Amino acid sequence: MSATMQDKVVLVTGAGGGIGRGIALAMAAAGARVVVNDLGVSMSGDGADAGPAQRVAEEIRAAGGQAVANTDSVSSWNGAHKIVQCALDNFGRIDAVVNNAGNLRDRMFFKMNEEEWRAVIDVHLHGTFFVSRAAANYFKDQEGGAYVHMTSTSGLIGNLGQANYSAAKLGIVALSKSIALDMQRFNVRSNCIAPFAWSRMTSSIPSETPEEKARVAKLQKMEAGKIAPMAVFLASDAAREVSGQIFAVRANEILLMSHSRPVRSVHMSEGWTPEAIGEVAMPAMRNSFFKLERSPDVIGWDPI
Questions:
Q1: Which positions ≥6 away from 170 have C-beta within 8 Å?
Q2: Is 147 a catalytic residue?
């Protein structure tokens, strides 16, 4: 089956630039009518600007497609419902949601303050839930729909200085799996993409030490537009049998990521004491422990 989006209506959050812009343009090129959502704020959350969303919508229309700009916030229940309503008001339906909106407040855990924590959780985790929930009843009633959520290996594997971002991104994986399970009976799918791409968000990564500079140089080779084909596929009817999965996209490389499953078990017939756990259980399991690694330690080969 062709991964066409002909006559479908797709909502893409955070679509004013970077990965979101690439997805919005690709959805339109595949035939979708697109709601281009973006607040247009700076990375610090200041200075809302309708310009980025408007420019992407105009770019789609100039190429012969159909698009409308929207600047409501994903981080509130009302804002999320307004975004979905924008699709209904302009195009009469909604077929797919791409939860891409994001921000960063990188800080070492022991220095992170409440605002830095809440700002990231609000946009990534709350935003993904709010927008998904706002579309859920329409998907349910029409017995069809697709969710595509952006996660990150910062949550799946780990990273330094990103406790807020990592927690939100791993939470999105659990949310996506719950949506896939709850909505399966209505032919609604939910999947995650962990994108590797150079964008406005990743441009804030420090590049002072030789190691940091090398990491940034690798990231700069990974074009934001490379993420779009997977998003279009997952939103299309061609992916009708794909749900509850996590994919990573890294330049021309696609990775299927694992889910948490038991690795090793030990049993004590008379029950465990704290001492027995230390003397028996931990030594038996130690060889199966996961190392304290970061995302670039685990996925460290050059992009293809």
A1: 151, 155, 156
A2: no
Where along the chain do its domains lie? 9-259
Note the pTM of the prediction, 2 decimals: 0.92
Please give the Cα distance from 297 to 46 (Å, whole number).
34
Confidence label for 48 from pLDDT (cuts 50, 70 and 90): confident
Model confidence at 202: pLDDT above 60: no
C-alpha dihedral sign at 207, 212, 214, 220: negative
Q: Kindly report the backbone phi and psi dihedral angles of residue 46, in degrees, each rounded to the nearest multiple of 5, phi listed first.
A: -100, 160
pLDDT in tens, 126-171: 999 999 999 999 999 999 999 999 999 999 999 999 999 999 999 9
pLDDT over threshold 60, residue 201: no
247 Cβ contact list (under 8 Å, min separation 6) = 191, 192, 193, 194, 230, 234, 254, 255, 256, 257
Query: In angstroms, what CA-CA distances link 179 with 78, 147, 156?
Result: 20, 9, 18
DSSP-derived 3-state class of residue 9: strand
CB atoms within 10 A of CB 29: 15
**Alpha-carbon gap, residue 285 to 293, rounded angstroms:** 18
Handedness of CA 74, 80, 82, 87 (dihedral sign): positive
Q: Which of 129, 130, 165, 247 is catalytic?
A: 165
SS3 3: coil
DSSP 8-state secondary structure symbol assigned to residue 302: P
Whether 200 shows a pLDDT value over 70: the answer reads no
Contact 124, 169 (CB under 8 A): yes
Q: What is the DSSP letter of 98?
A: E
Helix 163-183, helix 114-121: angle, nearest 10: 30
Question: How would you class 53 by CB atoms within 10 Å of its CB: exposed for 0-12, middle for 13-18, buried for 19 or more?
Answer: buried
The dotted CATH code for 9-259 is 3.40.50.720
194: closest CA among 165, 163, 236? Answer: 165
